[in-house]
Fold this sequence. Notes:
Elements: H1 3-39, H2 44-53, H3 55-58, H4 76-80, H5 85-91, E1 97-99, E2 102-104, H6 116-127, H7 139-147
Amino acid sequence: xPAFVTGRLLGKFRGASLRIPLLLxxxxxxxxxxxxxxxxxxYKKGEALYKIHCANCHMPDxxxxxxxxxxxxxxxxxxxxxxxxxxxxxxxxxxxxxVNGRVYSQPMAAIPKLxxxxxxxxxxxxxxxxxNRTPYLSxxxxxKALEECN
Length: 150
Ligand code: HEC
């Protein structure tokens, strides 16, 4: 085989062997970006609203304030009936409740300005954070619960 043909063939191979890893890197970067953009933090709106309306009492990590503010993190009270949180947010709560074995009796003020959609986003964020794993609630679930608050 003449030298220039071998050279061109080699060149082709070298080009191809460079191109494949390059494509792989591009594909991996794109899928990694897609993952961080959507898959990792699907409850961003709820998280933002939580920080504004709830975190100053229940703390950014949902642990509450010992003896005064009940936790939302791994809360048995919340997890038993997550949709009931809709009425708590809309109307507040003045009760003596037991959360994870501790009694709380400070009242929580109503937050009436939050829309049904905002409440849904907040509950879904809490339900998928800090050890909670409650079923996803739709806007219709929350709307129905809000209509039936007493
Ligand atoms: C001003 C402080 C304060 C703010 C702000 C506040 N809470 Fe509360 N929350 C409390 C207190 C105190 C209780 C206990 C009420 C009782 O014992 O009657 C409570 C109880 C709860 C409970 C039931 C108990 C539990 O831990 O599972 C849920 C759910 C809840 N809050 C969610 C929220 C959400 C969501 C927000 C934001 C939209 C919010 N709270 C904002 C103080 C607050």
